[in-house]
Design a protein that fits this description.
Helices cover 80% and strands 0% of the residues. With 189 residues, the protein is mostly helical. Helix 2 packs antiparallel against helix 5 and helix 4 runs parallel beside helix 6. The chain is globular.
């Protein structure tokens, strides 16, 4: 199942990371447009890996593991690099760190709850959080190249703050769910 189309699409999101990060150092506007294009392409693969897995009956445990991991690695790598090249700085570091911390916490919660055979479905609000996060990253990647049309950094920072606030909210929801099961387990021992 490793070389099924859905898994190949998922793995492509991990493989594209060094290309995307390296492209940020391209001269001129290519240093914005190429990474943005690669990031959008990675987002498209995120849609199609799930679509093809369901359509072709190729849902696998490997794919269920790799998909969220690939998403989190991609977002974390891009956020780190946006900080490194000063497209995220100052107060905007706060929502970026909140997003990274929440992703680590939710991953740990999912792992813990999986041992208890408790699912943690993605909420609608979490999908909005992801949408705001992706849009923020897109505007920050476009950065200098699109800045001549409007203040992309301001829009990116605002969206990053919205994503950060939604991250706190959804993180609290997930933590509450996780604590309920953790405390229930402690009471039974």
């Amino acid at each position: 199942m490793l070389l099924s189309l859905p898994n190949i699409l998922t793995l492509s999101r991990i493989v594209i990371i060094p290309l995307l990060l390296g492209a940020l150092y391209l001269p001129g506007t290519a240093g914005s447009w190429v990474p943005l294009t690669l990031f959008i392409a990675a987002g498209v693969t995120d849609f199609f890996d799930g679509y093809f897995a369901r359509k072709n009956g190729q849902i696998s445990k490997l794919g269920q593991f790799l998909d969220p991991v690939a998403d989190k690695i991609l977002v974390a790598a891009v956020l780190f690099f946006l900080v490194a090249i000063d497209r995220i700085y100052g107060w905007a570091l706060i929502p970026a760190v909140i997003i990274l911390c929440r992703e680590i916490m939710v991953s740990g919660l999912r792992e813990f709850l999986a041992e208890l055979r408790v699912g943690m479905p993605v909420s609608r609000l979490a999908k909005w959080k992801t949408t705001m996060q992706i849009l923020a990253i897109c505007f920050l990647l476009a950065g200098p190249a699109a800045q001549v049309y409007f203040d992309t950094f301001l829009v990116g920072e605002i969206l990053l703050w919205v994503a950060g606030l939604l991250t706190i909210w959804t993180g609290y929801d997930y933590l509450t769910l996780g604590l309920k099961h953790m405390l229930k387990k402690d009471e039974n021992t």
